[in-house]
Amino acid sequence: MSLFRDDGVVLRTQKLGEADRIITLLTRQHGRVRAVARGVRRTKSKFGARLEPFSHVDVQFFARGSELLGRGLPLCTQVETIAPHGGEIVGDYQRYTAGTAMLETAERFTDSEGVPAVQQYLLLVGALRTLAAGTHEPRLVLDAFLLRSLAVNGYAPSFDDCARCGLPGPNRFFSVASGGTVCGDCRPPGSVVPSPESLELLGALLAGDWATADACEPRFSREGSGMVAAYLQWHLERGLRSLRYVEK
Amino acid sequence: MYEGVVQDLIDELGRLPGVGPKSAQRIAFHILQADPTDVRRLAHALTEVKAKVRFCVVCGNVAQDERCRVCQDPRRDPAVICVVEESKDVVAIERTREFRGRYHVLGGAISPIEGVGPDDLRIRELLGRLADGSVTELILATDPNLEGEATATYLARMVKPMGLKVTRLASGLPVGGDLEYADEVTLGRAFEGRRLLDV
Known about the structure:
The complex is a heterodimer. By secondary structure, chain A is of the alpha+beta class. Chain A contains 7 helices and 7 strands, in the order E-E-E-E-E-H-H-H-H-E-E-H-H-H. The longest helix of chain A has 19 residues, at about 220-235. By secondary structure, chain B is α/β, with parallel strands linked by helices. Chain B has 3 domains: about 5-50, Helicase, Ruva Protein, domain 3; about 70-170, Dna Topoisomerase Vi A Subunit, Chain: A, domain 2 (3-Layer(aba) Sandwich), CATH 3.40.1360.10; about 170-200, no CATH class. Chain B has helices at about 5-15, 20-35, 35-50, 70, 85-95, 125-130, 145-160, 185-190; strands at about 55, 60-65, 75-85, 100-105, 135-140, 165-170.
């Protein structure tokens, strides 16, 4: 019987029984956590709208054992909002679809529950804040988040030097399986030749150079998005369900 | 384990939502002791519901005929359509006795993370109903959660070019609650939708 307190972002909710929900959160100290919120679907629930997806919250958990995870699912006992991103994101359909893809990505990259993933957590909090503020195109925010999620999980693609031999860039060819751009000597069969502007955009998104990214033409950002999706799918081995619904 | 048919009944009852093995056993023995006519009526109701109930061709609500009761009723205003997620929501709104228009049941809400997109809902049918221009108001009554809000946003964007009035159900403080326990989102919404007290 112990209490735990942590900050987290709500990734997903599932119905449980009559009026409860299982809430999946990405927390700062415990990584991905699934917990039960009792009575959250009742109109007079003390949680109200605090445990909706995209909410950044401060939660108190009640666990049966001495660890947060282990003996059954912990219970959410108290919740305070840090930032309710839901309202701003859901008011714009493009932001909503991009945001859902972010949540699903964060969930997929944190496979094991209870293992801290601080970088992934900070990345998600930052990305949702940017998405809710609406300062950049939602699709670009999503691509930047996907690229950086790949990077913090050890799959950083290269958009300049050759990913195989390290030949300084810019290189013309792009191969998902090789890990990014490759030089003429290293290129495996099936490599594509994207436009240099698209590669420059992806490099800018990965590095956080928003001035370059915002100035990019839509046709190059579309090509870039396709490359990011292919790269992500290769490393996650299974496609993201929500990526299909993202509005271009 | 009980004799064949009794155990079969217990197993079948145990497959219903919210019915565990103990409850299934209790219901089974209740049925065994009940009056044969009562049991026959129950069995009849079960087979009838599967045989007779279909979905209304106009609104998608559960119906016994081709059209549901609301769509058949000439007193209901055809110029106002209320969009809901499930048939259960139609019943909830009917209980208020406030609404005299017609309904459209979507069959769920947009949730990309669960793999439900706009094409999986009855949105095309809704646009078909709006096409002839006889509808003047569309009330979006999807659930006040994230998926419901997203669906409402999507629909509002889709029908905007048609130039009809699109409204969304109000959300705010529940009647009989305490203000200090209201969460920020709900309280914020209540502020947004505050109204003039005309006394």
